[in-house]
Design goal:
Elements: H1 3-6, H2 8-28, H3 30-56, H4 62-98
């Protein structure tokens, strides 16, 4: 074997340097930048087409469902608060009924 390959730390350092240079070359590449931009543009077009198709079929989008879910959660919390208030009023009325002054017993 070559002495160059006998040093694992040296090989690792050279490998890391080569990978770093390759990554930098990719980052500096106008072709890659254009490809990524085109991919994001195509994704946006696909999302728009999906929304249009779902609207045409009168189907809700994921955003519509998320908004509905948030509204339902909010409604559920409000109902729980009302239930708690009704429970407190019921308890208070029960205490008032059991009190001697409420029954005319002084």
């Amino acid at each position: 074997m070559n002495a160059e390959y006998d040093d694992p730390d040296g090989l690792r350092a050279r490998s890391e340097q080569a990978i770093g240079e390759f990554a930098q070359a990719l980052l500096d590449s106008q072709v890659l930048e254009n490809a990524v931009s085109a991919a994001f543009g195509a994704r946006e077009k696909a999302v728009e087409a999906q929304h249009a198709a779902m609207s045409a079929l009168n189907l809700p989008s994921a955003g519509d469902l998320e908004r509905l879910e948030r509204r339902l959660r909010s409604l559920s919390q409000r109902l729980e608060e009302i239930e708690d208030q009704v429970d407190r009023v019921s308890r208070d009325l029960g205490e008032i009924r059991r009190s001697p002054t409420a029954r005319g017993e002084d």
